Amino acid sequence: MIKKILITFSLLYLAAIWLAYPLQYLPVYIPIYVPGYMSVLSAITFLMYAWDKRQAKRSSYTKVNRTPERTLQLLALFGGWPGALLAQQLLRHKSQKRRFIIVLWLCVLVNVAAMGGLYFFV
């Protein structure tokens, strides 16, 4: 149930950002490249999670380089959080570490608050 909600939330957020421009819900001072930036960064974040998941599986029998958690968290903070939530739910990667989940949700809150602040207060 929660898995479906998080996947839906991520996809709806991206869809809302894309639809806000043609429907003129966002002010003109928010650049037009914001939806593309968030979509591309979300895709990159998803791919980084998938790569790290693959490396994690391989690390059980050979030494491999893993993606640092800080890198995954920074990608989420800079706008790739929809891809991070999708990857976390679909790939079941980094979904058990409480500290990582808390930081990820702080990144989500910062991003949503920033977008809301741009919309309502500027």
Shape: elongated
Question: How big is the Rg?
Answer: 16 Å
Chain-averaged pLDDT = 86
Largest sheet: none
**Broad structural category:** mainly alpha
Give helix and strand order, one letter per element, not per position. HHHH
Number of separate helices: 4
Distance between the termini: 36 Å
Work out the helicity level. over 70%
How many beta-strand runs?
0
In short:
About 75% of the residues lie in helices and about 0% in strands.
Strand-helix topology:
Blueprint: H1 2-20, H2 34-58, H3 69-90, H4 98-121
Helix pairs in contact: 1-3, 2-3, 3-4
Describe the structure.
The structure is a single chain. The chain has 122 residues and is mainly α. It has helices spanning 2-20, 34-58, 69-90, 98-121. The longest helix is centred in the middle third of the chain and has 25 residues, at 34-58. The protein is elongated. The termini are far apart.
Key terms:
4 helices; mainly alpha; 122 residues; 74% helix
